[in-house]
Amino acid sequence: MRVLIAFMLLFGVLFSSELKIATYNVENLFDDKISGSEYADFKSNRWNSAKYNQKLQKIARVLKELDADIIALNEIENQNVIEKLADLSGYKYYKFATTKGAPVGLGLLSRYRISDSMVYIVPNVKTRPILMSRVEFDGYSVEFFVAHFPAAKNPLKSRISAADTMKKAVKNSKNGVILGDLNSNYGYKFLLNDLDEWTNLWEFVPASQRSSYKNGKSAIDHIILSSDLMGGNLRYKDGSFGVFKANFMDKSYSDHYPIYATLSTKSLFEDLPKVSINQIKSTKQRAKITGVIVYKDKNGYIICDESRRGIYIYEKNPSLSVGAKVEAVVNKIENYKGNIEVTSLSYISVDTEFKADESKYLMDKKDISIATSGDVIDDITLDISGGFAKISKDKFKIYSPNRKISDGKIAVKRAVVWNYKGQKELIIE
Asked: CB count, 10 Å around CB of 38?
């Protein structure tokens, strides 16, 4: 059976639509009425109607300049405030959520119809809820999960509880987007790092530019997309993620900058370069590749192409078979323990009936000196001694997941080049 995962490349796209999404912590947008739950500074004569209206106008100016179709907002006091802001900014649809007695809540402004919404309460933690709003756009339903997690000064247990609530909320989401100030910096300690099959758009920004918070270089505001928005018919537009920093936005606007991205129904693969695996291993650029699956294990595949180079595709529960021909977009490449691995891949097409001589995709043993992790050597005889084999001038550790390695000569059909604790390794069947 032939599987075509992204058929739009075959038929072309005559029309396209784009949806610009954003998130913005507006910093304490309180109205001019005292309800009793406000922070102290907003209960005194230091805050009044004039200052409230001035703040509204400033935030509305940012929203107009940003020109997003959907924007999540943090630190909005109440329903009346978001209604006023929607009117000033030109948004027809909006939702708001808070908890009883909380100083501020959160909300969503939309130019498109909101068909459904739901509020998730973080159990046993005094914090903002999570607001899900389902927006209808160009025949697609997109689920936006707006959040504002507890600040870093709070107990880690409370912050983890908020993250766990989010994970439960998005568990079965299709076309899902997480937005908001999560008070957790992008990096190895990020609270949602173990959210499988979701992509944090900070991944596509150099580390030196990852900052949305003015009081310190921190990427604590986030836009995170479900896997279908990275590879479906409605998908992330490559290179569209950014931080909005208009010249007029001084400290009186907010202590955060908005961040934004675009979703598009257009086929975005056509603009990406098509490169060989040999090229992509050295440049690590986002690009299209075409190749054949020549090796599979429990954690992924190796794809090789006519450059006779291979690259490992890390994929949980891999379902494709050896021999399938794949055309795909490499979104992200990482170095894992000295090995080059693709950790984010969008399939364009998969041909499971492809018939070819796989040896034309494998590296010849005479070129083993230039091999790097992921390359697969064709038809090689190994003279093993003490678990190692010397080939040309290189010494390789020999490993097999299926049999015990014994001394002596053995002929193997293919051997995977790998790196094990800094030592060159060959993995054999």
From this structure: 18
Task: Say which residues have a Cβ less than 8 Å from residue 94's Cβ, sequence separation at least 6.
Answer: 82, 83, 86, 107, 108, 109, 110, 114
Tokens 């439960």 sit at which residue?
168
Contact between 230 and 331 under an 8 Å Cβ cutoff? The reply is yes
Q: How many CA atoms lie within 13 A of 259 on its CB side?
A: 25
Asked whether 107 and 97 are in contact (CB, 8 A), the reply is: yes
Spatial separation of the C-alpha atoms in residues 329 and 319, rounded to whole Å: 18
Give the architecture-level CATH label for domain 362-428: Beta Barrel (2.40)
Going by C-alpha positions, the residue among 190, 214, 206, 283 that lies closest to residue 239 is: 206
Domain 270-358, CATH = 2.40.50.140
In CATH, the architecture of 17-265 is 4-Layer Sandwich (3.60)
Using the structure block, give the residue that is written with the tokens 């936005």: 249
Domain with CATH 2.40.50.140 in the chain: 270-358
Q: Is the pTM of this model over 0.90?
A: no
Phi, psi of 39 (to 5 degrees): -65, 155
Residue 280 φ/ψ, nearest 5 degrees: -70, -25
The amino acid present at 306, given as its one-letter code, is: E
Burial 171-195 (b: 16+ CB within 10 A, else e): eebebbbbbbbbbbbbeeebbbeeb
In 10 A of CB 286, how many CB atoms?
18
Q: 3-class SS at 264?
A: strand
- Residue 18 contacts by C-beta under 8 Å, 6 or more apart in sequence? 237, 262, 263, 264, 265, 266
Q: Residue-wise pLDDT tens for the chain (429 aa)?
A: 233 333 333 333 333 589 999 999 999 999 988 887 888 888 888 889 999 999 999 999 999 999 999 999 999 999 999 999 999 999 999 999 999 889 999 999 999 999 999 999 999 999 999 999 999 998 889 999 999 999 999 999 999 999 999 999 999 999 999 999 999 999 989 999 999 889 999 999 998 899 999 887 799 999 999 999 998 889 999 999 999 999 999 999 999 999 999 999 855 566 688 999 999 988 878 889 999 999 999 889 999 999 999 999 998 778 899 999 999 888 888 888 999 999 888 888 899 889 888 889 999 999 999 999 999 999 999 999 999 999 988 899 999 988 889 999 999 999 999 999 989 999 998
Tell me if 45 sits within 8 A of 32, measured CB to CB.
no
CA angle 121, 173, 242 (to 5 degrees): 90
